[in-house]
Amino acid sequence: MIKSQRHLPAGSGWLLLVGVLVVITALAVSYSAHWSRLLLNEMAAEIEVREKAQAEWGRLVLEQSTWTAYSRIERIATEQLGMHVPEPSDVILVQP
To answer: Which N-terminal stretch is annotated as signal sequence (predicted)?
Structure first.
């Protein structure tokens, strides 16, 4: 009886290993590109949130400066509260 044995060519193990590594690398590149796109979309969303917050901050600072303007405070004090600047004769100095 003659047994027929197939012999693989020399170096075929290395070729198989290289092929497997190429497939793994291709999958890793695909995954890396997908992950990069996800992170880029997340970063764009965070930048948009930051820009909206900065715009809101600017509006709040402007509103604060409007509410605390000296002329506005003086007008409210005179019109609504009936306050006025005292005359020099009305000022009393207290000695320590």
So the answer is: none
